[in-house]
Amino acid sequence: MNARLIRMAASISCLLLVPLAFGGGDAKPKKATVRAGDGLSIVYDIRGKGDTALVFLHGWCGDRTWWKHQVDVFAGDYRVVAVDQAGHGESGKERKKWSVAGLAEDVHTLVKELGLKRVILVGHSMGGPVSLAAAQRLPGKVVAVIGVDTLHNAEFKWPEEQSKKFLEAFEADFKGTLRAGLLGMMPKNVEPKLLEWITTRAENQDPRMAIGLMRDMSGMDVKTLLKDAKVPVRCINAAGEFQFAMPTAVDVNKKYADFKAVIMEGVGHFPMLERPAEFNGKLRDVLKEFAAKGK
C-alpha cells in the first residue's frame, strides 16, 4: 500500500511540474511600468519567452488591448511586450509636447530598461512611424519593423489646407469627428460590436494629446524615417476597400528602405482586430524571415 501511495505521489508531482518544465507560467502577462525620460509612467504587459522580443505599438487613440488577439498567440515563441504609449490607455497623460519622436524615445527607454537584446517592433498606424523612429535610436537591437496598415507611401503629403481643416474639426468636436473618421476607416461589412468597441476606447483618449500628435504627424517626413531606421521594413496592409484607405506604394517605399508588403483583402484599418486568425498567420509568415540564428 505504501509503495502504491509513493507511486501516486510521484505521478502527481510530475504533473504539477509539467507546466514549469515547458515554461507555461511565462505566457501569463505581467503588468509593469517604466518611467520615461520626463518622468511619465509608461504601462506595459510582458509575457512569453524567446531570444527575440516582439514589442507591439498601437495606433493613434488606441491602447495595448488592440493587440488582444496577438499577445498570447505569439508568447509561445517570443517575449511579447504590449505597450500603452504615452497619453494612451493607462500610461501617463501629463506631457508638455506630444510628438512621434517623444513616443519613440519612450520605446527606447522601455527596451533598455527591460534589457531586450533582439527586438522586432510591430506598429499599427501611428505605431509604424513610431517604430521607425525607435529603431533609429536602437541600432543593433531592433532587427526589423513590421507595420500594420501604415507607411503606405513615403512621398505622400496631405495638402496643408486639408490638414488644417482636419485639426480644426477635431478641435471643434473631438468625439464626433473621431466617430466619423473611424467609420470611414472600416469596410461596409464591419461587425457593429467591433466598430463600437474601437470607437468607445478611442473617443475616451485625451483630446489634447490626440490633437497634439495629429499636428506633429501632419509634418512628418516618412522618407527620412525609413532611411534612418536602417532595418528591414515589412507591412501587413489593407487592400484599400474603405473610404479613407490609401494604397501601398511598394515601389516608392523601396527607394528609401528594404521594404515589402503583404496585402489583406476585405479588411479595414484594423486587420488584427477584424480578422485576427488570418492576420496572425500573415504576421507569423513575415516573422519567419527574421528568425534568430540557431533557432
Give the key terms.
Rossmann fold; eight-stranded mixed β-sheet; 17% strand; globular
Word description of this protein:
By secondary structure, the chain is of the alpha/beta class. Helices cover 43% and strands 17% of the residues. The chain is built from twelve helices and eight strands. An eight-stranded mixed beta sheet has the order 1-2-4-3-5-6-7-8, with helices on both faces.
Q: How would you summarize what this structure contains?
A:
It contains twelve helices and eight strands. With 295 residues, the chain is an alpha/beta fold.
Write the layout of secondary structure elements.
Elements: H1 2-21, E1 30-35, E2 41-48, E3 53-57, H2 71-74, E4 79-83, H3 100-114, E5 119-124, H4 127-137, E6 142-148, H5 160-172, H6 174-183, H7 192-203, H8 207-218, H9 222-229, E7 233-238, H10 250-253, E8 259-264, H11 271-274, H12 276-288
Parallel strand pairs: 3-4, 3-5, 5-6, 6-7, 7-8
Antiparallel strand pairs: 1-2, 2-4
Helix pairs in contact: 3-4, 4-9, 5-6, 5-8, 6-7
DSSP helix count? 12
Number of domain units: 1
Task: Label the overall shape.
Answer: globular
The CATH superfamily appears as Alpha/Beta hydrolase fold, catalytic domain
Highest-level CATH class: Alpha Beta
Q: How much helix is in the residues? A: 40-55%
The string of secondary-structure elements, in order, is HEEEHEHEHEHHHHHEHEHH
> What portion of residues belong to β-strands?
15-25%
